[in-house]
Design a protein that fits this description.
It is built from 3 helices and no strands. With 75 residues, it is mostly helical. The longest helix has 24 residues. It is a single-pass membrane protein. Pathway: Energy metabolism; oxidative phosphorylation.
Length: 75
Amino acid sequence: MSLLFRRPTLTRLLLLKNIKQNQRSTICSKPPKEKIGPVQSTFALCVFAVTLLAPAGWIMHHIPEYRRQGQNTST
């Protein structure tokens, strides 16, 4: 019989159950110590949007220059 389809032994099942119980005990369900206000949330969202959109805007702004450089090198 293949080792892959062997039934797990009782000790292995107990070990897995013990591991699952230990993992659950590390979860913290307390409320946060400091509440984040709307100003901080808005600032964080703006910074996140700028960090994503600024490089894309830079590339799109310079597309005509990239095209001209590509045409000059290919001829």
